[in-house]
Automatic annotation (TrEMBL):
It comes from Demequina litoralis. The keyword Transport applies. Keywords: ATP-binding, Nucleotide-binding, Transport. This is ABC transporter ATP-binding protein. It holds the Pfam family ABC_tran.
Length: 268
């Protein structure tokens, strides 16, 4: 293969869930997508279209029914075992008995990184997420936004080449959410990580992504891919005509018009 290396290759994937009563739920149908190294790709679509399912297949948390997924050229099982990616899902999932610093250092500890190097890395990440003064606090002493920042720092502790993020900012208020988006952009620039990002927010997808993948109602299929090539992803972009044009393009593809829309997709 020539050109940019591929972080994730999803090739003709179907997912059918078998329910306990013997029924079937066809969640994904013939989904193919390549995510390049360093690329930021968002998945957007109506509620129940299979965004989280696709993420879980990539993370090897569920088996696929047919097709193939590789992560950096490896099987999803091997990539999971090798911990080739960081995961940040909607619930921050911090360990309540560990301090902020100890939560961030957890993956490093599991992999036998020595205490001094762990501390250097957690110092760096605490500075990056602006929580230096909270290193010794525990999760229950933090706001929702702060917890999410810690979860993202933990996901990035080992400088993964790939981040899987499922609605990581869904529970945050609008101001915190925009702040977290800015931080994520900075973190990705620092590490060059590829990201697959699930969101219900069209502006969030457009602000963050190199490409927005639009999915159909169940069974989820990729119906459109919107490339976005902004000069810079900073506060000015949020007021830029090019940004509004991107939002309108995605909204039109999702809704078939600029007004209204399916359940589970937010225009804000
Ligand atoms: N373990 C399961 N067993 C049976 N059906 C399932 C299972 N997990 C998901 N589904 C079904 O698969 C479909 C896709 O679900 P999924 O959670 O991936 O959608 P989503 O696009 O992430 O939705 P939302 O935007 O509401 O979070 C839904 O119809 C859901 O009910």
């Amino acid at each position: 293969m020539t050109g940019t290396p591929v972080a994730v290759r999803i090739d003709g994937v179907d997912k059918v869930f078998r329910t306990r009563k013997g029924g079937e739920v066809h969640a994904l149908s013939d989904v193919s997508l390549d995510v390049a190294a360093g690329e930021f790709v968002s998945l957007i679509g109506p509620s129940g279209c299979g965004k989280s399912t696709l993420m879980r297949l990539v993370a090897d948390l569920d088996p696929l029914t047919s097709g193939e997924i590789t992560v950096f050229g490896k099987s999803v099982e091997q990539a999971r075992k090798d911990q080739d990616y960081g995961i940040a899902f909607q619930q921050a999932g911090l360990l309540p008995w560990r301090s902020v610093r100890a939560n961030i250092e957890l993956p490093l500890e599991i992999h036998g990184v020595d205490a001094r190097d762990r501390r250097d890395r957690s110092d760096e990440l605490l500075a990056l997420i602006g929580l230096e003064d909270f290193a010794d606090h525990h999760p229950d002493q933090l706001s929702g936004g702060m917890k999410q920042r810690v979860a993202i720092a933990r996901a990035m502790a080992e400088r993964p080449r790939l981040l899987l993020m499922d609605e990581p900012f869904g529970a945050l208020d609008e101001m915190t959410r925009e702040h977290m988006q800015n931080e994520l952009v900075a973190l990705c620039q620092e590490t060059g990580a590829a990201v697959i990002f699930v969101t219900h927010s069209i502006p969030e997808a457009v602000f963050l992504s190199d490409r927005v993948v639009v999915m159909s109602p169940r069974p989820g299929r990729i119906t459109d891919i919107v490339p976005l090539d902004f000069k810079a992803r900073d506060e000015d972009l949020r007021e830029d005509t090019a940004f509004y044009e991107g939002v309108t393009a995605v909204r039109t593809l999702l809704h078939g018009s600029e007004q209204g829309g399916p359940r589970g997709v937010e225009n804000r």
